[in-house]
Write a structure and sequence with these properties.
Helix content: 25-40%
Strand order of the largest sheet: 4-5-6-3-9-12-13
Largest sheet: 7 strands, mixed
Distance between the termini: 44 Å
Shape: globular
Strand content: 15-25%
Oligomer: single chain
Length: about 350
Amino acid sequence: MNFHQVLFLLLLIFLVDLSDYGVLADKTNDGYKNATKCNIYQGRWIYDNSSNPLYGTSTCPFIGLDCQKFGRPDKNYLHYRWQPTGCDIPRFNGRDFLTRFKGKKILFVGDSLSNNMWVSLSCMLHAAVPNAKYTFQLNKGLSTFTIPEYGISVNFLKNGFLVDLVSDKTRGLILKLDSISRGNQWLGSDVAIFNTFHWWSHTGRAKTWDYFQTGDKIVKEMNRMEAFKIALTTWSKWIDHNIDPSKTRVFYQGVSPVHLNGGEWGKPGKTCLGETVPVQGPSYPGRPNEGEAIVRSVIGGMTKPVELLDVTAMTEMRKDGHPSIYAGGGDRLNDCSHWCLPGVPDAWNQLLYTALLSH
C-alpha cells in the first residue's frame, strides 16, 4: 500500500468517526434545515415497521412504564413515527445530542408527564452509549440521570403546580396561586422544560390541596381553569424576572391529553383500554383542550423567550399509546393519562432535539 492509499484510508476512518459523533451528521443537519420550513407540530402519525424504538427492556433498565414488560400483547404502537406536513425532521441522534450538550444541565420541572418525558430522554441517551457509565437516581424531589463521560446531567424536579403548596395548621394544604418561593431550584440549568396541567383537574381523593389562595383571599373552590391561568401567569412573571435567556433556554411542555372518553373517537362508554391504532383523520374529533388555549395566551404575553413544545394536537391522536392496564398496577388501574415507553414521549423528545438544533 503506497503513501496516497494510506492517507486515503486514514481520512476515511476520520470521516466515519466524525459521522458517529454527529459532526458530519448529514441527515441530521439536512433534517433540521428542512424542519425550519414548516410547523413541525402539524402532521400525522405514520406506521413504519422499519421504525424501531431506540431502546427497550433489554437496553434501558429504568424505563418505568414499560408496557411490554407488564404484559401488553400488541406492539404496533411501537412503530408509529411522527411526520410533519411539508417537511422532515431529523432522526434523534443520541451521540450527537451528548456531544452538543457535553458538560450541560437539562432540567424537567413538572408533574408525572414531565417525568414520562424525562425517563424517555434518559433512555434515548443511555441507549446511544450503552457501555458508558451512568447514574440514575429517583427521589421524591430531584431525580437525576448523568453520563459522567460527557459531563451531562438530565434532571427531573417534581412540582405538579409550579406555584406554592403550603401547609396550614387549621386549613390543611393551601395552593397559593400567586406565590413561587422555591424558584431558585430552577436556576443554573442550560435547558429547562416546564409543565403543569393535569393536577388542576383532580377531584375527590386525587385532589392534593384543600384551599386556593390569591393575595389575602382564601376559597375552598373556584373554577379550575381560572386557577390554572392565574398560576401559570405567576410562573411566567417569575421566568421574565429571573431567567437570563443567554444562559438558559426555556421550553414549556404542551398539555398532554387523556383518553378516558371513547365518545370523542366514536366509541361511547370506552376508554383507551384495548386501543391499538391512533385516531384516523387530519384532526382529533373531540372538543378542544381548554388548557392549550390558556398556555398559548400566557406564553404569548411573556417578555422573555419561551418555546412551546406544541405537542397537544399530535398527542390527541394517540389513543393507543397509553399503558391502560399495563402500567404495573394490575387490572384495577386503567391509566389513560400517561404514556407507554418506548412510545409517544420519544416523539416529544425528537421534537425537542429538533428545536435545540436551531441554536
